[in-house]
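Assemble and predict.
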Amino acid sequence: MEDLLEQLLHGLTLGSMYAMVATGLALMFGVVRLINFAHGEFFMLGAYAFWFSFKELHLPYAVAGVAAAAAMTVFGVVYQRTVIRAILDRTWHVQLIATLATSIVMTNLAMIVFGTQAKEVPTTLSSTVITVGGLRTTWQRLLVVAGALVVFGALHWFVTRTKLGKAMRAMSQNREACAVVGVDVQKVALVTFAVSAALAGIAAALVTPLFNIFPDMGALLALKAFAAVIVGGFGYVNGAIAASFLIGIAESLAGGYVSYAYKDAFAFLFMIAVLLWRPQGLFGRRIGI
Amino acid sequence: MGLPWIVAAAFPGQQRYLLHILVFTGLFASLALSYDLVVGHVGSLSLAHPAFFGIGAYAAALLATEAKWPFVAGLAAAVLAAGAAALLIGVPVFRLAEHSLAIGTLGFAMVTHIVILNWVDFTRGPLCVTSIPRPSIAGLAITTLPAYYWLTLAAFAVAAVLYRALTTFRLGRAFHAVRDNEPLAQAAGINPLKYRMMAFSIGAAVAGGVGALYAHYLTVLCPEELTISLTVTLLVILFLGGVGSLRGIVIGAVLFTALPEVLRVAPTWRLVIYGSLLLAIVIRAPEGLDALFRRRAPR
């Protein structure tokens, strides 16, 4: 029984990570109608930024985490100003190929700059095993789940209470109407990107002490995030979050009880299974935050 | 086609290297043509091509090394296996809308890579399949480089003829109709799903065949051959050469296989350059490229 609960907790940890990344993806699609194939690389860069701040600059954990999130926010802005602005009004094929190309460039540049050897960033939180109610875990895993909840709470507040957040929701519903009413569409797009990138950075800071960092870690993660976004109903952020947790738990259980080597395949299989049953995703085609 | 001999005469001693480059170019050109069938002519942006290439390559390699099948039988098996995989994955994946097709096929490609990498008992995984025998067709052993060059040339000729045949006449027009305006094609009685699946599976089958030839040429086959870098290279060939154009794709293949080999660019830098190039072309595309995609009816 403990085994099952431990797997479930692991699944929650995974789900939190996928959810944070998937939310960024869903936001970009919902608000700006963009499929960002390079999103996995946002996470990868965030991970390296965290590693650099924590291991090389020897900043304390919390500061390094904030540094990683800040670095990613800047990167998100730069990315939007350069790549995205050029492809925003083009067909989705162009957007897909452009972001795919960017993803390859970033992955290989990371290989060149950081080398292909995996990097480890253990913190005191991740290396001490604690026992909570009979379950063995680490503080870090609990931190990931708690962090995700805090982040989603903050996001929800942002989107419902602030003007900018409301503008994001409005844009996800009807972009032309927003422009007509006087919403600064460019600014909202920029903010969306910054938020998505920051989310990836925060996720990286929380999660990388648990796993290794290597240049192509973004690809698998992006696939699972995409699976979550599709299963949740493209553009529907809450759906993506729910689907992320489902995928995380399914993967953990499958990895523990079926096969560890193929656990990564389960997200994809899950997605195909759901789509065969309900092509519009679990929550339908609701666009919105 | 006597080009190699002419160039060999001009650069004595470089013969082997030149032939090697030509074999690679021929294989990649055939692969690019099969990919263009799906992307350029029927308009489905599939990212699964490396998986079909890999399935064909591994099928041929394993049948030749483990089951000691003759080359031609292994080649046929490779083609059929890849085509069958396409049919299998096509059914769920073509039900998805647009972008989801890309993600679905990408997922399939990644999962295939994961399976091949991890099923060590069957595929040797990271240890690679080694000692793949050189082909032998009806008793004629193809062990020398010039012989392999002719084999590749023959294969490319088949691919090119197939490509031409499938993209002209009524079939070609049906493909283009589905690509350019799916609702209209449907109204005219052309079943989009049937034609997309047709192009998808034929493209996959050819890719599988190329994979088999590739495995026999290298005599060693590792899981790294089926990663997304292959897709990016193919996309660059298609976009720089000219989507939908036989000549353009051959030129693209020559540029993007021969040149990096000759310049000895490291794989990582190669991909950085390809990616940047792809990004640049796709953004600044002349109306032709964009018009190709924009001719589809809005969804």
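The two ends of chain A are 37 Å apart (CA to CA).
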